[in-house]
UniProtKB/TrEMBL annotation:
SMART domains: HTH_XRE (SM00530). The lineage of its organism: Bacteria, Pseudomonadati, Bacteroidota, Cytophagia, Cytophagales. One of its GO terms (molecular function) is DNA binding. SUPFAM superfamilies: lambda repressor-like DNA-binding domains. This is HTH cro/C1-type domain-containing protein.
């Protein structure tokens, strides 16, 4: 049982649950969190564009099953494919920030 009594910040909670930054457990958590954010952004942008997954896949040159997998956070995605989906399929630009 973990002791949450001394946890005062969200960062402390994440560290208690998933380990210190750089640990294998924390890296996996961070990767999953980023994939979730991307999947939600993709889903929202597709709905705003009034496109079905099939229509988006056709515009972006990929398959409906791939779009579905991404929207459900189940697949890995190459940056070039992500850019193509957003730019060709959704007419949106992608900006990246490295911290």
């Amino acid at each position: 049982m973990k002791d949450y009594s001394k946890v005062k910040t969200f960062d402390e909670l994440i560290e208690l649950e998933h380990g210190k930054i750089g640990s294998e457990s924390r890296n996996k958590y961070e990767e999953n969190a980023q994939m979730f954010i991307i999947s939600e952004m993709l889903k929202e942008a597709r709905k705003e564009a009034n496109l079905t997954q099939e229509q988006l896949a056709e515009k972006a040159g990929t398959k409906k099953s791939y779009i579905s997998k991404l929207e459900n956070g189940k697949g890995n995605i190459q940056l070039s494919t992500l850019i193509r989906i957003f730019e060709q399929g959704l007419n949106k630009r992608i900006g990246l920030t490295f911290l």
